[in-house]
C-alpha cells in the first residue's frame, strides 16, 4: 500500500487566512515554520510549509490559531499547477491538513514560556475530500 502522509511541528509565521470556495466550503491557510538545528555555533535553518484546512477544520484553525502558536499538523502532500502573470506553468506543493494540535504558549510569570493545554481540530474526513482542486491559483498564501 502506498501512503501519502506528512507530520510537521513548528510555529505559525502569521495569523491564519480564511476564504471560501464558490460552493461555500471554508478554506484556511497557515504557514508553519519548522527549524532544523544546525549546530552549536550556527543559526538554525527554518523551512516554511503552507498547510490548507477545509470545512469545519478551517473554521477551527481560523478561530483558535494565531501567529506564534506551536502546532503539530498531520496531513497529506498536494501538488497543484497554476500560470504566472506571464502565462508560464508553475507547480507548487502544500499540505492538506487532516489533524492539527495547538500548543499555545503562555507565560509563567518569569518571562519563560510553557505550552498551554492542547486543542485539537476534529471533523469528518470526507467533508472536504476533493474540494482543494477548486482552490489553488497563482496567489500564494
| Tally of domains | 1
Query: Which structural class fits the helix and strand makeup?
Result: mainly beta
Strand percentage lies at over 45%
Q: What is the overall number of helices?
A: 1
* Low-confidence parts: 106-117, 122-141
Could you tell me the mean pLDDT? 80
Report the major sheet: 5 strands, mixed, barrel
Identify the CATH architecture: Beta Barrel
Total strand segments: 9
Rounded to the nearest angstrom, the radius of gyration is: 16 Å
By CATH reckoning, the class would read: Mainly Beta
In CATH, the homologous superfamily goes by the name Nucleic acid-binding proteins
Distance N to C terminus: 32 Å
CATH fold category name: OB fold (Dihydrolipoamide Acetyltransferase, E2P)
What's the SSE pattern? EEEEHEEEEE
What's the overall geometry?
globular
The strand order across the widest sheet is 1-3-4-6-5
Residue share in helix: under 10%
Description:
The chain is mainly β and 141 residues long. The protein has one helix spanning 56-64; strands spanning 6-12, 17-20, 26-36, 45-54, 70-83, 89-103, 105-107, 113-115, 119-120. It has one domain (6-124): Beta Barrel (OB fold (Dihydrolipoamide Acetyltransferase, E2P)), CATH 2.40.50.140. Helices cover 6% and strands 49% of the residues. Strands 1-3-4-6-5 form a five-stranded mixed β-barrel. Strand 2 and strand 3 (26-36) form a beta hairpin. It is globular.
Brief summary:
By secondary structure, the chain is mainly beta. 6% of the residues lie in helices and 49% in strands. The radius of gyration is 16 Å and the shape is globular.
